[in-house]
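W.,

You were right to be curious about this one. When I first looked at the sequence I had no strong expectations either way, so I just let the prediction run and decided to look at it fresh. Below is the sequence, 725 residues in total, followed by the output.
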Amino acid sequence: MSDDELDFDPDELAMLRQLFRSEAQDALETVTARLLASGSARPSPEALTEMMRVTHTLKGAAGTVGRHAMVDLAHRLESAFVALGREASPWTAATADRVVEVLDALRGYLDHVDEPNADALADALRAQIDHISRPHRPAASQPPAFVEPLPETVLGPESDAGPPPEPKAWLRVDPERVDALMSSAGELLFDRTRIERRVQLLRTLARDLARTRQALHDAVVDDTAVRSPARIALVDAEVALAGQAALLSQTTAALLDEIEALRRTIGELQRGLTRIRMESARSLMTHAARTLRALRRATGVTVELRTVGEDTEFDKAVAEHLVDPITQLLRNAVAHGIEPSEERSAHGKPPVATITIRARQDGHSLVLEVGDDGRGIDTAALSKRLVATGAWSAARARLANDADVLAALLDTGISIRGEADELAGRGVGIGLVRQTVAKLGGEVKVASTPGKGTTFTLRLPLSTALAQAMLFKVDGQVYAIPSVHVSETTLVDAHATTATVRLDVVPVLRLEQLLGHGAATDRKPAIVVSFAGKRLVCTVDKIIGVREIIIKPLGPLLAPLTLYAGATVSGSGKVQLILDPAQLVRRTHPDAPVAAHTDPGASSAVLAGRALVVDDSRAIREAMTSMLGNEGWIVDVAEDGARALQMTRQVRYDLVITDLEMPELGGFELIARLRKDDRFKTTPVVIITSRANPEHRRRARDLSVRALVAKPITRRKLLEALSAR
């Protein structure tokens, strides 16, 4: 199958192959770890089964992205594992070494798969893998008959076949290792502070020593008439003491300079480790482009995407959580904002609408703007909906201005639509955006101009490891709240239950009572906290100010205490707890929604429908998302059956496409559980698998599966499966 037959545009295919490469490296590392865990002994049946499953998944993903040589190599390796699993097959320490050599060579092959000499490398690998399947016992006087190492013309840096290959573009590092290094850098910072305090103590001692020396000098000078040996000894001691005091003072001053240099070095280390966690906004925007293309095909809306700031970098952990909010905002724009081409032309607008995503850094924050040039938000209609749903009283609606109405959109999650479809109308989407961003320590704002469009602005911390936080004291203990949720400070009377903040009356939360330190007896400083559209005033004993902190997860002892979102450590080594703004809001706004859930019974299916793709290969999930999106489907994905089952409890899907062999919960088990749910008894299910054997087909028929498709999956196979009855 050529690249033209894969039905992906060149940029999309390049992205999918990059995903596959990363996924394949992880898979090979998993197999290697399983093998090495057994030492020189034969791997256990469970370990061999896992090694075969991972290799099998790798084979299917390779076929989906058109890496056909890798399909063959993975198939041969899987067959080799099957042969090695037979008890009759000899297993020695050399056998494990040969397998590890093959796995290392496969990793090298992935790095050079697009080079002209890739075929030679693949041929050498086939010979190595076949040698594993058919090991022979060398004579005692001969060395083991290993396949010759791969020729230098393939991988070697000193080859005569041309210039050496460029170094790898990516260094793959486990995120937990980066987090551990970041934590160690934080410990260095604490160590520096402790050393600095010791040096300050030395400076104090040096000053005291200088004063003592001066007192001794004065006493000796006053006794100039006495020329006894004792006085002479005292003079000599005073002179020596003066020199030592001066040396001590110079040494402590030099130590302070070195500590300052250490502070700068630690700062560079922390910033460097933070940069390792960063990725550009390009991948997020690429995903947005695919989503919008699917929406365009599904709805017929003529709209194009414009992106600005693709090189803006931020924490990958933040980027992964932003996929769903950006997707929801795009759906919202298509459902609510973009007018039909005829209406746009009648109002003097270009017939093709534009959605713009902008990314930029603002200090320690990431700012993402998702805007459209559509009709804007009808605040009058939204105000009526707020009253109709009971979110507002009629009197409140009469007093509200446009800014109040737009703020209520984020606060209540009310939708202007009276009916729900696949894109909008349930009042869930904006609430999910707000909740997700808030959990990341960010905030969402909306601005809209009638006839010109709507813009949602997401402001988040650049990194989940470093953050700006407001520090304060309650009963001598230092606590923190993320600065993004702190709008200002104020003063609160001793027994006040509410406070007026910029003409708004907001509830007061007494942290001295919440944290178990008794009641307030006098006027106190307070912090105004905003979260998920709600505000409250938290009283404290003393406001320390804004500091940059290293966020650490709570240990198992404190994890059950939901009031705290994490912890940091002060320069003196004391633990400082970070309060969770969501929990504070719950205590003052008990009726506020804390999470948004889709109503399983809500009406659905106006477009092609909503599909759930379940596969442990990310490359296959992305490929299926593209294929289904081109056919008008809105697509959600899950990495295994257990995660898929959780998702089906919240959303009713019109189509489920699943792999069979997955960790946690396999495909057949997932389908069996879905069939016990009345909502999914008749939902079309398609299986994609590399094991399309008669037994699997029989089980699929018993579970009323619409089609069982053999990997590698293609658009033609998918369309045939969807049209099957």
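Here's what jumped out at me. The chain has five domains: 3-146, 175-276, 281-461, 466-588, 610-723. And, maybe more interesting for your project: The domain at 3-146 is CATH 1.20.120.160 (Four Helix Bundle (Hemerythrin (Met), subunit A)).

Coffee later to discuss?

I.
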